[in-house]
UniProtKB/TrEMBL annotation:
Native source organism of the sequence: Paenibacillus lutimineralis
Domain HAMP stretches: 305-357
Enzyme's top EC category: transferase
Residues passing through the membrane, by range: 20-38, 278-303
Pfam families: HAMP, HATPase_c, His_kinase
Domain Histidine kinase: 468-566
Key words of the record: ATP-binding, Cell membrane, Kinase, Membrane, Nucleotide-binding, Phosphoprotein, Transferase, Transmembrane, Transmembrane helix, Two-component regulatory system
Subcellular location: Cell membrane
Protein name: histidine kinase
Length: 567
């Protein structure tokens, strides 16, 4: 469930171009994959079945050839077994060496020689006889030599030709029957066949990677491609088995019978070799499917890119608007929904720019009116004359403290009024603050300390007037006045990244976190911090103005930042 939710969210968060591409590919690739998979599966199955059919036909043909060879050998053995001269020679009891020699040379050797000439693959023909014929090479041997063989009792009980094999030889044996005398001798015709020549029809199958197992009716191996291998019993006990897993591989099993000998031929070949022959055509089908998928991917990418290009342009333009630029760079004369969206965005930006300009100008004008109204409340000439008179009379009575207060007030109001100008030199603003600070020190009986740290590099620049005095006033009234003793205010100013940065630090009682968060957002009750902050943002931009950091019972740190300007 969690993985499905994650996948759903990931798809939901994909960009619009990827969603269009994904939808296009999904819709296009479903029939391609379904039809391609069907064609691939059917073609592969057809080719594999055809390969199996061809292999089975080759096996049956090889088995038929082997069966024909065995029938030819059987005819030779039958010819010898039913040859009346050989039957008589094998059942006669000899009393004369000459007679015995005559039968060996003129009857047995002559017929066996003729039989071997008929088929050169017969490596040995032997008459195992129970008569008193002497041993004659490999042609005539006493039957006592085979009494202990495994096939002897089987042959003596049968009237048919039986085929056997040992580890290296394949041979057929048949009992020589004589129904013309009462007590015939036990005689057997033995024919050993060249196994390589006999099994030559299967060579082509083995060269193609197939392996053979030929077993007789008793389940004994007549021939095996791997003589030392132990085969699973299921291979030859159940001829209907067509597949098996053996030695970590999957094998295809084919079966054929040899009726003449009663043998069963099992061909087992790794299925991978059978399917390998079909892979050329199957790989072609697979490549065609991949090519179709690739074409769909390319077409989907080009389509989505073409479709989304105008939306990307609109998004880029929106981003520049978010960063402060109100210039519309994207246009469209299309009548579709995206064209309507682009034109609507352009109209909205134009109206927004007009509204911002209107509000901005009105706010600046309002602030200027407030400043001028504040300045107009004071009659400069009357004020300066009054302060000059106070200073003159204080000097006459040697009241130096009153004289100093009058001079400070004169300097303070002269720099505050600034001849009606809103911009003032930084040096004069510093002078205004210093005058104000000295007045406050006199009023507070020098109960706190003042420190200035002003970089002279900022003095020639201009700034809005009456920006620092509210910061100092706030530090005194809301900070150090509430301390019992040891108050301190520090004013510093420096040039930093083409900006003028003023900092006012006090070690007063600090500001509560809840109050600090809304100090610059709440409606001001006087000409204080928020007023200074709003003036700076309106004149220079939202990234300028005041930042405040404070810790209860530790003090407050107020920073004013605005661009350095020559005028």
């Amino acid at each position: 469930m969690q993985s499905w939710y994650t996948l759903k969210k990931r798809i939901h968060d994909m960009n619009f171009q990827s969603k269009i591409k994904f939808a296009f590919l999904l819709i296009s690739m479903i029939p391609v994959i379904v039809l391609g998979s069907f064609c691939f599966s059917e073609t592969r199955s057809l080719l594999i079945n055809q390969s199996k059919s061809d292999l089975n036909a080759a096996l049956n043909q090889s088995a038929l050839t082997l069966n024909s060879q065995l029938e030819a050998y059987n005819k030779i053995v039958n010819f010898l077994s039913f040859n009346q001269e050989i039957v008589n020679a094998a059942n006669h009891t000899y009393t004369s060496t000459f007679e015995m020699y005559d039968q060996l040379v003129n009857v047995i050797d002559q017929n066996f020689y003729t039989a071997r000439n008929l088929n050169a693959s017969i490596e040995q023909l032997t008459l195992y006889t129970g008569t008193n014929l002497h041993q004659h090479g490999q042609t005539v041997r006493p039957i006592s030599e085979v009494h202990n063989t495994t096939w002897y009792p089987l042959v003596m009980k049968s009237t048919n030709i039986l085929w056997f094999s040992d580890r290296h030889n394949i041979y057929s044996v048949r009992r020589v029957l004589n129904t013309k005398i009462k007590n015939p001798k036990d005689n057997i015709i033995y024919a050993r066949i060249n196994s390589k020549s006999l099994l030559e029809p299967f060579d082509s199958l083995e060269t193609q990677g197939a392996e053979l197992l030929i077993i007789d009716a008793a389940g004994q191996a007549v021939y095996s491609s791997e003589p030392d291998e132990v085969y699973p019993n299921s291979l030859y006990r159940d001829p209907s088995v067509d597949e098996m897993h053996w030695n970590g591989k999957k094998y295809t099993v084919l079966h054929a019978s040899i009726p003449t000998s009663g043998w069963e031929v099992f061909l087992y070949k790794p299925t991978s070799l059978i399917t390998q022959s079909a892979w050329r055509i199957v790989s072609t089908v697979l490549l065609m499917i991949i090519a179709c998928i690739g074409a769909v991917v390319v077409a989907g990418t080009l389509f989505s890119r073409k479709f989304i290009s105008r939306i990307e342009q609109l998004r880029h333009n929106m981003k520049t608007v978010e960063e402060g630029s109100l210039e519309v760079t994207v246009h469209s004369d299309s009548k579709d929904e995206i064209g309507d969206l682009i034109r609507g965005f352009g109209n909205m930006v134009v109206k927004t720019e007009d509204l911002i300009n209107k509000v901005y100008r009105e706010e600046i004008a309002r602030k200027e009116y407030e400043m001028k109204a504040l300045q107009a409340q004071i009659n400069p000439h009357f004020l300066y004359n009054s302060l000059s008179l106070i200073n003159w009379r204080a000097l006459r009575i040697h009241a130096t403290d009153i004289s100093e207060m009058a001079q400070l007030l004169s300097t303070f109001y002269r720099t505050t009024l600034n001849k009606g100008n809103n911009m003032i030199l930084v040096s004069n603003e510093i002078l205004n603050v210093q005058s104000y600070m000295k007045i406050q020190l006199l009023m507070h009986s020098n109960s706190f300390d003042v420190e200035y740290q002003i970089d002279e590099a900022i003095l020639p620049y201009h700034m809005p007037n009456l920006m620092l005095q509210p910061l100092i006033e706030n530090a005194i009234i809301h900070g150090i006045e509430n301390r019992d003793e040891g108050g301190k205010i520090k004013l510093s100013g420096k040039l930093e990244d083409d900006c003028i940065v003023f900092q006012v630090d006090d070690n007063g009682i600090g500001i509560e976190p809840g109050q600090l968060a809304s100090l610059l957002d709440s409606k001001p009750t006087g000409y204080g911090l928020k007023n200074v902050h709003d003036r700076a943002r309106l004149m220079y931009g939202a990234e300028y103005g005041i930042t405040i950091m404070s810790e209860v019972n530790q003090g407050t740190h107020v920073t004013l930042r605005f661009p350095a300007a020559d005028e």
